[in-house]
Amino acid sequence: MKPPAMKKKIPDPAGKRKGRRFKIRLAVLLAVLAAVAAAAVFPAGTVWNRVFTFFGLRDFSAGADSVPCSVHVLDVGKADSILVECGGRNMLVDGGTADRGASVAAYLKRRGVKELELVVNTHPDSDHIGGLAQILQEFPVKRYFAPGIPQKLIPSTEEYQSVQKILKQKGLAAEHPSAGQKFSLGGLRIQVLGPAVPGNSTNNNSIVLKLSYGKIRFLLMGDAEKEEEQSLLDSGRSLSADVLKVGHHGSSTSTAQKFLDAVRPRFAAVSVGEDSSSLPKFSVLRRLYRSGVTVYRTDVSGTLIFLTDGKSLSVKTEK
Fold first, then answer.
1. Global pTM?
2. What is the chain's mean pLDDT, rounded?
């Protein structure tokens, strides 16, 4: 009697595919868990970016590592905070509101910032000075700029007083730069353009900065309104720039057409968030669009990074 014939085992391709998919998913899960664990162990900055890049989870801001100069317009709601990096040196212009101080500090740490060559408070309104108290506490700062404003305009807010207290504790004197003053940051040329004349409000006493790296120029307006814009025009200094950080969050009080005609920007950055003011105003956006300007908004695109080698200019957005 012959033994029963053995049935030949037929391979199951579907089963193999399922097995491969499971292994891939498991590998991805382990990579994510390892990256999260590494982020908790390794310090912020370059090492943090390298770890995440290794696992294919590159930090958004790491795109700035490939260029010598970058300007980061941080997403801090209807407020201002701008990190400028050039040649391994760092400057911070404004710090957002007090409740955004921690997020601004976290971003700086992600970028590997160990110290700040300069902190500029364009003017003492709470949405520009509020977060600087935490920055001054957490980072060594070499110089601190603030506008010299009339005594009657100096605020009595908690945010302003907190910063003055920390400056005193750190033995850091506030400098009041004058229009025309120039300095540098790792190859970046910086010129103070305003306030050209004393203004009648904190907004119209905003420190206005022109940054130049090679052929590329940035104009940072703080909350300057039409009156300060006019004083800049009257000063006769060149206002032309490739990137305009729009004044006063896109409010109708700023970005007059004749001022825009003098600047002739390619790009505009509006630092803004949802609130009762409904900014940026349509009239401002219309002027920008009709002038051929490409507009980026932090409430739409998150943090904006302008990247340059001094010849070319590109924009990277968080969202």
1. 0.84
2. 89
Is the domain of 146 the same as that of 238? yes
Residues 158 and 222 in one domain: yes
241 contacts: CB under 8 Å, gap ≥ 6? 210, 217, 218, 219, 263, 264, 265
Which of 6-15, 145-154, 166-175, 216-225 has the least mean pLDDT? 6-15
Tell me the three state secondary structure of residue 148: coil
Domain check: are 35 and 154 in the same one?
no
List all residues 6 or more positions away from 117 whose beta carbon is below 8 Å from its beta carbon: 89, 90, 91, 142, 143, 185
Cβ(260)–Cβ(61) below 8 Å: no
pLDDT in tens, 63-73: 999 999 999 99
Q: How far apart are the first and last CA of the chain?
A: 75
Q: Could you give phi then psi for residue 245, rounded to 5 degrees?
A: -85, 105
Q: ∠ CA 269-284-150 to the nearest 5 degrees? A: 80
Residues 233 and 84 in one domain: yes
pLDDT at 55 over 90: no
pLDDT in tens, 124-158: 999 999 999 999 999 999 999 999 999 999 999 99
Check residue 43 and give its pLDDT. Answer: 40
Give the range of the structural domain holding residue 38, as residue numbers without chain letter.
Answer: 16-48
In a domain, 6, yes or no: no
Q: Based on the domain organization, do 169 and 106 belong to the same domain?
A: yes
